[in-house]
Structure formats: structure tokens, C-alpha cells
């Protein structure tokens, strides 16, 4: 093992300054060697001989409609239950979360089936019993009506504009106030008056207005009020911020967190969301395309909430395109958690999948491609990956159904890669597939050792798509450092096995804290705030890996507490080596990197560390950056060795480049805490 006098001198000085060793430096050195210093060596072959390309698609994102990730999350629609369908098709139905402003003497609200939209017949009928001043039953000064609180409060911000659309009908003239107010309605944040003659609204009419907020409240609501007696119907009420990502309806702050991970693929829309507890409640793409006001919406019975399906099949492809990720569409294969379609009857599902593919990539004159084109995207989306179901391999009809899908899709679209639900990590598959899906949720210590799960996977079969992984249960709480470090070790193993592991994504991606159906998650948010859990930040250490080159490296030392890997990548035409190492132990580790390379010496350029004082620490709304990567720049001299400190409970990365390339880069991103070494 190579040791450096300069290095030990530095350690001594540091410990001396911290007052944690004797004033006698020789004692200090001896103590440090015996007690604090654990050294390991990473033998790194940077020559061309043992390099291996890492797939372009290796690291991506799995977006599932779970935890209100989409409805009340990424999808920026502010109104919840905008079509009044969530209460079911039997009338009168529950209008939750809509609420009534006024009492039974002044207003009567009920649902009926009078909507002009065939696939969502429920509308809200409001009978205003009071009238303007002077009548025998005068309305309260603020009027009576209904309000929608959105998803646990709307985030209305001063100076921002919101596009409000609704459908209305009345038997008389209308005089309505459409307003954003504070959560209890006491403060008006924006308001417009809508007046129309009976003749203008005797049939359903669409109204659109822009509300500009003159105040801020992240728990605001949208309300319709009036002081005019009469009968009014409402349907399909939408309020969306004018400022969404590329104007496509995605919440800016949440999508930015996705983009920052540089995802190479986007798996969607589930998960169990695709399956449903019952087939009748599964995500069926045809119900989610076309004009938003005509979509029926559906109750996702696995995660137990209604979605208006504003974030539908088209929007998922748009999302993938907008974040620069390849779409991976998971479709229902005729199997839910509790019921299934026998293989002999599965053809309608097969046709539905073929149609869904045509929707994405058929030309604008094709039957379904034309629907996409009419929605504003005449160019096909680049769909190259589909998954036949989710976690259904053990179901009796899975294999039979799968083969029907496989044959039909390969016949029409031979280039599409098909993902099977059956695990082939330790034994060959009994059916054809391009990828096999692999999900793992476990404890940190288990995931740590599972970094070897693919060491012995047959190299001649389908590639692994690790589409869901996470440390969960008590080890993770709601997303702590311990979980993240277990995941980091697992990812290092996947990176090393990326000749057989083709795609990797964490799950779940998002959680709205008002509906934590599944914890932990990578990104935590409410209507106005968000933060990444340590698991999110671990993924950020792998943003350079997709399409990079794996270098052959061997760790000499105790691999039960440290795992490391090395890649080389290019950015701005310059070559870098990146070493990543996780230390799950309680002591600092000194990692000596011994590079075997014939040409110029490498220099440390950038160091990044994710750690915290307690391995159970978590980020929170009150302390969102407690555990985020700490970046620092460093230059080394010719004489310095590549000797790095891995703090206790940490993930570190070290970007190296050769002397010819040294430049100082500004680190401007706001989340980064920058310090000098
Ligand atoms: O990620 C949460 C759930 O875990 C997914 O819906 C499912 O595929 C898995 O069981």
C-alpha cells in the first residue's frame, strides 16, 4: 500500500488544530494510524484496454401517478375534481373537494347528468335562492356559490397570471364573480366579473379569463359567487398558471428537479397505477387523450384517489420530450391485482397497446397519429420501449398474454424494445424479451450487498431494467441518509454491471406530503415548496454515467463498508475521470487511488460529498438542504498523490482531469453549498 508523508503531515496538522491529538506530532501520527486512519486503495486502470461503454440509457426516471405525483403535483392544474365526476356517476353525487358558500336559505347545490360532454355527464347545478339588495331574501354581501380548494390549497402568487376556463349554463342572466381568495375566503387575491344575458348562456358556453394575483397565498381557493337569484350549471372548471414548463402544463419547480437528474428515459405512468386493483380502475390510455374537458377521469383504486387525467397519454410523451428522455410506456396487459383477462380474450388489450403505440409514433394521417397531431404534436414521439404490464409475472395468464403482445408489437414495430415483468437476473427467461423488469425495495444493508445482484447474470440474455429500487421501511423513515447510502452502493454495482443492466430508475419519484401513500420518495413537495431527499441527491451523482465509459477498478480493502467505481466521461470536449465511493462505516476512510496510465498525470478538479452528522438525518421543509451534495474545487500539484478522504456515512465523487485541461469552473447552481478544501 502506498502512503504519503505529505498526506500524513496534513492529517496530523488537521487533528492538531482540532485539538483532538497530543501536541507531540509523532504521537499524533501514531494514534491516527492505529485508531482513526483506515486506508484503502482503488487500483484504477485508465488505459484503453479494459474500458467498457456504459449504455446511453442507463439512468432515468420512473414517474408514477402515486402520492399525487401528477394530479396535485407535476401537472399544474389547480382545480381538483374539475368535472365533478369524482363522486361517481350516480346522482346526486358527492362534489368533494368543492364546497358551498352560503347556507340552505340562500343556495342549493346538487349534481345532475346534464353536461354537454358525453364521456363525463355529471355537472354541478346551483340554485341561488337569495337575491340582490332589496329582495326579501338578500344574499350575503360576498355572495353565495361554490369554491374549490385545489389539492390542499392552491399556490397563488402575487404578480402571476392564471388561465381560468369553465363551462356554464343558466336559465336566466348571470352575474358571477370568479376569484382566487385566501383559504377562508376572507382575502381576495384576484377577481373578475362575468356577466351574460340568458340568451348567451341558455346552452352550455365556454368562458375563459385570465386572473392576475395581487397577493400571495399557498393555500388559496378558486370560487364562483353571485348575488343574483337563479339557476346556474357549471362543468369542467380549470385554473392553470400561465407560467408552466414550455407552456405544456408542468409545474416549473418540480420538472426542474427531474431535468437536473439528466434522465435518459422516462418510465410512465406506473407501477400499480397501470394495473389497478381491478381492471375497471386501471389506467386506460384512450380515456386520457383528446380535449381535456372531454376526458372522463378515473379513480386509481391502488393509490386511492381520483385523477381528472389532465396528465394523460399525450402529456406523458410530451413530458419525456421536454426533459430530453426516451419514453418507456408501461401498458396494462389485461391483468390487475384482482382480476385478469384470459389469454384467449386478450386481443382487445393487444389492439389497445398497438393503437397507443400508433398514437405516439404513427404519422399524422394515421388513425391514432391524427389524434396526436390534433393535440398539437404532428411529429411522432420517439417511442422505442414498452413494458408489458407491471409486476405481473406471477399471474396465471401473464406469459400467455405477454406472448400475444410481444408477437403483435414485434410484427408491426420490430425496432421497439419489449420489457418483460419476469426476472432473469439469475436464470434465463422462458420467453423472448429485450429487457426484463427488476424491482427491489429492501433494507439498506440488504441493498448494499445486492450491488452484486447482476454479477452472475447471463450476458447473452435480455438486459435488466431495474425500473424500481429503493431502501424502505424503518431504515428509510421518510427518506434519510442511511437509505441513500444503501442505494448508492447498489447503483455502483449496477454501473459496474452495465453490460447487462441497461436501465435504472428509483421509485417513487414524487410525494405530495398531503397524501403520503408510499414512503420514502425522491422529491417531496406541497403546493409551493419542495426538497430532494438524500435518495434524490444520490441519483445526482450518476448524471455523468449514462453514455460514459466504465473503467476497470479494484478496491483493495474492506468492501463491507466501502464500495467504489470509476468512469471516464467527456464534457465540453474535455476528458474526465470520475471516482465515486460510498463509505457506510462510522470512520473516515482514506482512499488512495492508484492510476495505471501511461500518459499525463490526473489532477483533482472537483470533489462532491453527501453526508450528515447522523445517518438517520433527513431533509425537511424547514431544513431542505441539510443533506445535499457539498461541492468544492481543488487543484493539486505535481507531487500530490490521489489520496482522498471518505467521511463516515458518505457518498463522494472526485472528478479528475489531466493538467492540460485545468480551468476553474464557476459552480453557480443554487442548491450547491460550495466550500474550499
Ligand atoms: O413504487 C411504488 C410501487 O411499488 C409501484 O407502483 C409498484 O410497481 C411497486 O410495487
From TrEMBL:
<dbReference type="InterPro" id="IPR010720">
    <property type="entry name" value="Alpha-L-AF_C"/>
</dbReference>
<protein>
    <recommendedName>
        <fullName>non-reducing end alpha-L-arabinofuranosidase</fullName>
        <ecNumber>3.2.1.55</ecNumber>
    </recommendedName>
</protein>
<comment type="similarity">
    <text>Belongs to the glycosyl hydrolase 51 family.</text>
</comment>
<keyword id="KW-0378">Hydrolase</keyword>
<dbReference type="InterPro" id="IPR017853">
    <property type="entry name" value="GH"/>
</dbReference>
<dbReference type="Pfam" id="PF06964">
    <property type="entry name" value="Alpha-L-AF_C"/>
</dbReference>
<dbReference type="InterPro" id="IPR055235">
    <property type="entry name" value="ASD1_cat"/>
</dbReference>
<feature type="signal peptide">
    <location>
        <begin position="1"/>
        <end position="23"/>
    </location>
</feature>
<dbReference type="Pfam" id="PF22848">
    <property type="entry name" value="ASD1_dom"/>
</dbReference>
<keyword id="KW-0272">Extracellular matrix</keyword>
<keyword id="KW-0325">Glycoprotein</keyword>
<feature type="domain" description="Alpha-L-arabinofuranosidase C-terminal">
    <location>
        <begin position="467"/>
        <end position="650"/>
    </location>
</feature>
<dbReference type="InterPro" id="IPR013780">
    <property type="entry name" value="Glyco_hydro_b"/>
</dbReference>
<dbReference type="GO" id="GO:0046556">
    <property type="term" value="F:alpha-L-arabinofuranosidase activity"/>
</dbReference>
<keyword id="KW-0964">Secreted</keyword>
<keyword id="KW-0732">Signal</keyword>
<dbReference type="InterPro" id="IPR051563">
    <property type="entry name" value="Glycosyl_Hydrolase_51"/>
</dbReference>
<dbReference type="GO" id="GO:0046373">
    <property type="term" value="P:L-arabinose metabolic process"/>
</dbReference>
<dbReference type="InterPro" id="IPR008979">
    <property type="entry name" value="Galactose-bd-like_sf"/>
</dbReference>
Amino acid at each position: 500500500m502506498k502512503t504519503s508523508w505529505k498526506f500524513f503531515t496534513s492529517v496530523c496538522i488537521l487533528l492538531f488544530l482540532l485539538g483532538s491529538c497530543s501536541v507531540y506530532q509523532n504521537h499524533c501520527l501514531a494514534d491516527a494510524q492505529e485508531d482513526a486512519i483506515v486506508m484503502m486503495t482503488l487500483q484504477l486502470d485508465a488505459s484503453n484496454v479494459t474500458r467498457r461503454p456504459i449504455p446511453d440509457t442507463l439512468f432515468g426516471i420512473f414517474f408514477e401517478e402515486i402520492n399525487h405525483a401528477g394530479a396535485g403535483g407535476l401537472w399544474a392544474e389547480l382545480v381538483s375534481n374539475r368535472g365533478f365526476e369524482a363522486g361517481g356517476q350516480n346522482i346526486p353525487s358527492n362534489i368533494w373537494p368543492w364546497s358551498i358558500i352560503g347556507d340552505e336559505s340562500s343556495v342549493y347545490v346538487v349534481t345532475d347528468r346534464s353536461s354537454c360532454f358525453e364521456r363525463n355527464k355529471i355537472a354541478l347545478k346551483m340554485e341561488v335562492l337569495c337575491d340582490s339588495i332589496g329582495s326579501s331574501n338578500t344574499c350575503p354581501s360576498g355572495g353565495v356559490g361554490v369554491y374549490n380548494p385545489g389539492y390542499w390549497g392552491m399556490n397563488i402568487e402575487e404578480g402571476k397570471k392564471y388561465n381560468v376556463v369553465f363551462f356554464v349554463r343558466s336559465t336566466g342572466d348571470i352575474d358571477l364573480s370568479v376569484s382566487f381568495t385566501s383559504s377562508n375566503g376572507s382575502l381576495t387575491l384576484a377577481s373578475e366579473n362575468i356577466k351574460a344575458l340568458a340568451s348567451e348562456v341558455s346552452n352550455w358556453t365556454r368562458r375563459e379569463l385570465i386572473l392576475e394575483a395581487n397577493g400571495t397565498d399557498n393555500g388559496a381557493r378558486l370560487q364562483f359567487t353571485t348575488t343574483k337569484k337563479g339557476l346556474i350549471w357549471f362543468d369542467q372548471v380549470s385554473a392553470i398558471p400561465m407560467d408552466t414548463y414550455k407552456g405544456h402544463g408542468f409545474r416549473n419547480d418540480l420538472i426542474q428537479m427531474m431535468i437536473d437528474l439528466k434522465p435518459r428515459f422516462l418510465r410512465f405512468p406506473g407501477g400499480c397505477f397501470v394495473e389497478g386493483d381491478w381492471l375497471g380502475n386501471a389506467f386506460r390510455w384512450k380515456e386520457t387523450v383528446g380535449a381535456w374537458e372531454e376526458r372522463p377521469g378515473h379513480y386509481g383504486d391502488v393509490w386511492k384517489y381520483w385523477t381528472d387525467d389532465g396528465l394523460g397519454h399525450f402529456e406523458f410523451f410530451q413530458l419525456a420530450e421536454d426533459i430530453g428522455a426516451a419514453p418507456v410506456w408501461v401498458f396494462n396487459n389485461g391483468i390487475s391485482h384482482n382480476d385478469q383477462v384470459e389469454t384467449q380474450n386478450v386481443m382487445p388489450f393487444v389492439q389497445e397497446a398497438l393503437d397507443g403505440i400508433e398514437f405516439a409514433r404513427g404519422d399524422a394521417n394515421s388513425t391514432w397519429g391524427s389524434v396526436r397531431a390534433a393535440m398539437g404534436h404532428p411529429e411522432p414521439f420517439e417511442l422505442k420501449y414498452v413494458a408489458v404490464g407491471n409486476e405481473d409475472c406471477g399471474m396465471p395468464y401473464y406469459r400467455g398474454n405477454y406472448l400475444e403482445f410481444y408477437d403483435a408489437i414485434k410484427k408491426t414495430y420490430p425496432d421497439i424494445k419489449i420489457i418483460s415483468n419476469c426476472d432473469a437476473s439469475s436464470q434465463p427467461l422462458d420467453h423472448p424479451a429485450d429487457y426484463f423488469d427488476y424491482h427491489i425495495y429492501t433494507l439498506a444493508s440488504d441493498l448494499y450487498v445486492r450491488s452484486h445482484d447482476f454479477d452472475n447474470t447471463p450476458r447473452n440474455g435480455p438486459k435488466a431494467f431495474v425500473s424500481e429500487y429503493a431502501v424502505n421501511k424503518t431504515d428509510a423513515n421518510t427518506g434519510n441518509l442511511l437509505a441513500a447510502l444503501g442505494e448508492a452502493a447498489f447503483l455502483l454495482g449496477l454501473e459496474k454491471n452495465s453490460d447487462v443492466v441497461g436501465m435504472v430508475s428509483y421509485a417513487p419519484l414524487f410525494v405530495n406530503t398531503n397524501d403520503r401513500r408510499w414512503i420514502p420518495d425522491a422529491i417531496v413537495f406541497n403546493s409551493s415548496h419542495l426538497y430532494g431527499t438524500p435518495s434524490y441527491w444520490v441519483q445526482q451523482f450518476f448524471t455523468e454515467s449514462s453514455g460514459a465509459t466504465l473503467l476497470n477498478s479494484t478496491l483493495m480493502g474492506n468492501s463491507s463498508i466501502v464500495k467504489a467505481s470509476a468512469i471516464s466521461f467527456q464534457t465540453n470536449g474535455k476528458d474526465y475521470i470520475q471516482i465515486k465511493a460510498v463509505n457506510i462505516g462510522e470512520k473516515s476512510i482514506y482512499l488512495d487511488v492508484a492510476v495505471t496510465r501511461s500518459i499525463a498525470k490526473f489532477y483533482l478538479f472537483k470533489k462532491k460529498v453527501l453526508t450528515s452528522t447522523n445517518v438517520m438525518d433527513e431533509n425537511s421543509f424547514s431544513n431542505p438542504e441539510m443533506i445535499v451534495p457539498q461541492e468544492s474545487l481543488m487543484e493539486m500539484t505535481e507531487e500530490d498523490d490521489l489520496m482522498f478522504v471518505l467521511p463516515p456515512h458518505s457518498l463522494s465523487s472526485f472528478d479528475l482531469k489531466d493538467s492540460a485541461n485545468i480551468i476553474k469552473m464557476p459552480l453557480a447552481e443554487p442548491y450547491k453549498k460550495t466550500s474550499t478544501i
